[in-house]
Amino acid sequence: MLQAKLQMLEAIRSDWRYVRSVTGKEAPDARVMAALDEVPREEFVPSHLRGAAYENRALPIEDGQTISQPFIVALMTDLLVPEPDDVILEIGTGSGYQAAILSRLVKKVYSIEIVADLADRVVRRFERLGYGNIEVRSSDGYEGWPEHAPYDGIIVTAAAPHVPPPLIAQLKIRARLVIPVGAFSMGQELLMLEKDDSGEIVTRDVLGVAFVPLTGGYGKKTEE
Fold first, then answer.
1. In angstroms, how far is the first alpha carbon of the chain from the final one?
2. Residue ranges per domain, the chain?
3. Residues 114 and 134 sit within 8 Å (Cβ to Cβ)
4. Are strands 201-209 and 188-195 parallel, antiparallel or unpaired?
5. Do residues 98 and 72 lie in contact, with contact meaning Cβ atoms separated by under 8 Å?
6. Percent helix, percent strand, percent coil in the chain, to nearest 5
7. Which residues are catalytic?
8. Among 57, 151, 170, 180, which is least packed by CB within 10 angstroms?
9. Residue 46 — φ and ψ, nearest 5°?
């Protein structure tokens, strides 16, 4: 596993060349890479896929969901510019891997998972692995988690047709929202939105991506 993890980290550094012009950085932040080194990805994939845990690709998990490609996890985490005292909101807990990475970098992670069974499993996983600064609830991520807002950053791990306005409202000034936007059949774009000092949103296209769709009330509203 150690050799496989080292190869994963090297693959992330290699793939970074595709986003250097957007991020303005030659490599991911060292703290982000240290978190990827620390968190055991094999604990977040189905048992029959543990041998592939450190391959630099997305893998299927329960309930028709996926665990994201490590490079994409590194990129989205880096785009948030996480700081030790930050409180981060995640929409789409999934396997819990992205939240676990963030938990090594920030004070608190609030994570929402719409699939109740998946949320229950990931809570037990966090308890078993000792990730005590992550709180998970099962609900529709469209509305965010206003009780703990505003957030120092928000990350969405499923693709939405448009950016949910409640998430923008729950961002602090100078905070970032990282989200894939677009329909799977027509192509998706990873966006980084930042709220400036006047409360206006500045949006940057980062990279073409492929994520499972955001479900729940937001998806229904966009279809009506």
1. 48
2. 2-223
3. no
4. antiparallel
5. no
6. 45, 25, 35
7. 68
8. 57
9. -60, 150
Show the DSSP H helices in 16-90 as ranges. 20-23, 30-38, 70-80
The encoded tokens of residue 142 equal: 């469209």
What's the maximum distance between 2 C-alpha atoms anywhere in the chain? 50
State how far the alpha carbon of 72 is from the alpha carbons of 13, 77, 78, 148, in Å.
11, 8, 10, 26
Helix 30-38 to helix 70-80 angle (10° resolution) is: 140
Q: Could you read off the pLDDT of 55-111 as tens digits, one per residue? A: 999 999 988 889 999 999 999 999 999 999 999 999 999 999 999 999 999 999 999
CA distance 98 to 105: 11
**2-223 carries CATH number 3.90.640.10:** no
The tens digit of pLDDT for each residue in 209-220 reads: 988 888 876 544
- The residue type of 176 is R
In this structure, what DSSP letter does residue 146 have? G
Amino acid identity at 6: L
